[in-house]
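Regression test attached.
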Amino acid sequence: MNDTATNAHDVDLMEVGSEGQQYLTFMLAGEEYGVDILRVQEIKGWDTVTKIPNTPEYIRGVINLRGTIVPLIDLRLRFSLAQLDYGATTVVIVIKVLNENRKERTMGIVVDAVSDVYNISNDDFRAAPDFGTAVDTDFIRGLATVNEQMVILLEIDNMCNSAELKIIDSISE
Amino acid sequence: MSIDMTQFLVTFYEESFEGLEIMESELLNLDIGAADAETINTIFRAAHSIKGGSGTFGLNAVASYTHVMETLLDEMRNGKREVTQQAVAILLSSVDVLRDMLKSLRDDLPLDHDAVAASQQELDELLTGVEHGESPSSDSDLHHAEIEPELEPELEPESQMGWRICFTPHRDMLKTGNDPVRMIRELESMADIQVNVDMANLPSLDDLDAEESYLSWEIFMTDCISEIEVREVFAWVEDECDLSIEPYAGTVMEQSLDISVKSEPELNVELLEKSFNLVAPEGEKIVAQFYEQLFERFPQVKPLFANTTTEKQQVKLLAALKLVIGNLRNPETLIKTLTELGVRHQAYGIEAAHYEAVAETLLSVLQEFAGDAWTDDVKTAWSDALTIIATVMLDAYQADDEVIAVQQTAVQPAVSPVQKTASTLVEEKTAPALTTKPIDKKAAGEGRKPSTGSGTGETSIRVSIDKVDELINTVGELVITQSMLGQFGELEDLTNDHQDKLRDGLAQLERNTRELQESVMRIRMLPISFTFQRFPRLVHDLSNQLGKKVELKMSGEQTELDKTVMEKIGDPLVHLVRNSMDHGIESPAQRIAAGKPEMGTVNLNAFHQGGNIVIEINDDGGGLNAEKILAKAKSNGLIGDDETLTEEQIHDLLFQPGFSTADQVSDVSGRGVGMDVVRRNIRSLGGSVEVKSTEGVGSTFTIRLPLTLAILEGQLIRVGRETYVVPLVSIIESVQIHKEKVNVISGRGEVYKLRDDYIPIVRLYHVFGLKAESTTLDKGLLVIVETEGKKVAMFVDDLLGQQQVVIKSLETNFRKIDGLSGATILGDGTVALILDVAGLFDLSKKITTHTDFDKSDEPRDSEIDCDENKLKDSDDEAVA
């Protein structure tokens, strides 16, 4: 929301592939996923959402984030995992996503729990193995090992712009 | 002292466009033959301000153009000229030209010099033509000068070689912040000038007060600049200087002579000839000596002669000298020769400094040869002559630059018509740009507004001081209420008395908030006359073009409307008015035959109705021919051959894409693009448009628009656990369902009989795939909504309260959803979605799978029904 923060973060977005980056990791069905921490706007608890009619189930609806209407995506449903009841530990990570035109928008992703913040240098990356059609690796930036545990680093832009979100986006602009 | 002029420039453009609008409307108000002096005065003043402003900002093209207009108007004002139809037409077109000029300047686009020149010529012809009767062009300057001495300089620029300006600032001029140097520079930027400074009054350094001005100048301008333009340079200091501006007729040569031999106005030709004849026999020696000395004294010029030999050069110089002396009494030939020579010299790369070198050398060589005959007088004569020669030759340089400049500008007009045509085409695919030009350009210009708005000052609005005062009052009250309420926060316990006061305070706060909101919204509201004012011109031009007699009547111009809505409604309105004139109003002959008055009428009416603004465009023309429309629609394949439609449905066909009943496609309309665009534009504003027509009597187009796009008066409804907002303006009524009034047509479409109407029922839970509380019709409520003349009954669980909601876009972070126009935030902080009634109706038509309503309690599962493909997508992407 803060202008300077946004700008700084824009600059940093461009520097993928230089030094290491910090990643915020969260848990989803026992696996640890990471997103670029500079994309994270805030973390908040689960609250009532307003369902949007005629949208895929993984779009849980919209919330009021201090006057802005922000859509929420349930990552479990997005990845076709079993749905979990939302409770006190359910966490919404509000992130900033850029589309192809580098237009920024705010979205929330619903995850099981927030885990940790890691410094992961680009050398520690492993490219995601090719699963063929079984797994779409488009939105995986890479795999990293932290404390002997695998962390799946997400390419958040690809994920949130994919499929129907993106298609409609081009119409509305 | 540098001031950022751009901010003033923005204001200048704004005011100029306003001025142009005033000129336009007043011109249309002018009674031909019996013009009201005050009206002409108003037009004159508008033109005058534009001229003055453009002069101040150095927009000389605009200033000089406006000047001609002003002159014409001035004559009208003084009664020297009659107000003719022709004059008004030319002035109107010049308003267009001027508007284009200003737009181009504002947007940094190239000026359309052709159009300007053509229009200026028209104006000039009008001016001179009437003055001189039948032979405008061949008249002598003299004759012209007798009648209109003041105007003579601008009108006959070719007779005018320049100005002699004597400029003597008063002693204390500098103290007022005016700097003569800047004015001279300004003159310099307008034309070639020669400046002589008179330092006679300059005191000795001891007595000199640095803050006083002691100098005076004599300035000669050689170009055809209008006197007004020259005067404008000195406009700020008129009272602080002695200024005389005299036309300076004569050739450049003579003038130059004057400049350089100020004390001795006539160049001493005799002396020159005599002295030259004296040395002529030794000419060859002289030139040889000359080059020797030249290279010796100014070695830097040597490279310039690299391409030639000294011998050749000597011959040339001698020839040139002889030529000059021989033609001293024949200045025209001389100037021509020297000019040509100058152009060639420029090509060689010779600069002003080199001429000085040559002059100096030549003088000393001549002195050597002339010996005793080289008196001071002779020397002065030669030195003057050489200076003049150098000046003339250097002038040729600049003349050459001008040629290049002219060539460049000649290219620009060639480009701009293309651009113009392109924008014309975008607006409305009109082919003959010539006839439709004034209107289309205008419309295109208006259409561009929102897009270019960000860069320029167009995004500003003018707010009347009343509205601002009101706002301040309201804020004042709000602060008082706030401080009152603040006291309660400090209390330990609230007694009953306190609670009452608290309640009062909260009520007051609510009132203040509402008032504040209203005042703020009112700032954005402007009277619709801003949009209406372009129509008199449009109707005037179009009726001429179409050969119809049409009178425009407007009412409700003061009806206020949100600025954003207003900007977007302009073009659809233009289209509808043009349609009315082209298709609606019949030709005078037809009208007389039909027993109607020859003069057709188009009414433009605006008023408030509920939370809407309604704009009606009504004509007393031929009305819509239902059969013709039907036949056309069938031939276009818009409807099937055997379909029968109600009259309303037939009229509605007008708004279908690709529909036009005009027998002939005209410049004005008939291409079938338009009405559908009109409807789409109006719909995008959340409004509706409908047409009512009686054949032979006329048609009425009714546009309904929300007053503002930011706030909506909403009715909250509940379906299951979801709350939605329905725009209150679209709700007609809400009814409890009487089961016997529900009919099911062919097992699919449910209709509800409300009085004499059968209204289709849309089950909101069904369309949106929700779990509803009640799925049997008699348990819920029907909300009858209307959109574009069609009624729909929405089946909902419950009606909640009514409230104003602030519209938030869903598209900012998400996307457009069918059936929803946006979202809002309710008092408890949750998000409620705002229904788009028209979109909802369209959506309901797509979902027709459900047949057996009353038996099924299962909500339609949207994820499975509609989104199979999407689910597949997510399957593919899922991490195993």
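Expected vs. actual: identical. Chain B has a mean pLDDT of 73.
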